[in-house]
Amino acid sequence: MEEMHSEPRTDKIDTHHHFVPDFYAQGDPSGWPTPKWSPAASESIMEQLGVKTTILSLTAPGACILEGQKSFDLARRCNEYCSELRDKSPRKWGFFAAFPSLLNTEAALAEIAYALDVLHADGVSLFTRYGTGNTYLGHADIEPIWKELDRRQAVVFVHPTHPVDTTKVNESMPQPLIDYPHETTRTATDMIIASTRRKYPGCKVILSHAGGPCHISSRESPTVPNTGNKLWLTSNRSTMT
């Protein structure tokens, strides 16, 4: 039997690694504290875990923590910061671009063009929900964004943000512990029901946290016909014809 090696592999690519520059030092409404961060701190973690390349992304709420032009400016500053870091060590760093609210369609499309065409980002980072309501990624208002990303065959990293109701179930249980993974599943299911992935198959989607509890879908799907769900009725009818 070959001897087991305890040394970590050194060819890993980390696609879920957040950066927190000093100009993004505001709190997260989920209750999660904003950590102190530096490239050196990330490099130390990479060395410990055998990570060769890290793809940086901005955690929730991202540039959406601000509104209007300030949100656009913050997204641009974050993207240019990552671009400069990547250019210094291109084998060590990459990044998924940040954006203002996707509900500001023109601003989001402009930043997609700048981030991918000028800064050459490795992909984009989208949050599970936008605005003050339940506008998840399968919503019609997000379709112009998906259409452009599909045209570019972009890599799309989906990261959760807080749900509409930010009330804590327990003061000792910040939302990222439980609610965030559920938000990932909610937006993934929303995209499936809205046929987002079918309409825009060119995007390569990465769901953070392994998609949350997506794995229970096979257990729950047999109950869908009992709900009178239009998706099931349409799919069933098209299968029979």
TrEMBL record:
GO BP: secondary metabolic process
Cross-referenced Gene3D superfamilies: Metal-dependent hydrolases
Entry keyword set: Decarboxylase, Hydrolase, Lyase, Metal-binding, Zinc
Keyword Cell cycle in annotation: no
Family matches, as SUPFAM superfamilies: Metallo-dependent hydrolases
Domain Amidohydrolase-related: 13-213
Record InterPro entries: ACMSD, Amidohydro-rel, Metal_Hydrolase
Enzyme Commission identifier(s): 4.1.1.52
GO CC terms, sorted: cytosol
Source organism superkingdom: Eukaryota
GO molecular function: 6-methylsalicylate decarboxylase activity; hydrolase activity; metal ion binding
Protein name: 6-methylsalicylate decarboxylase
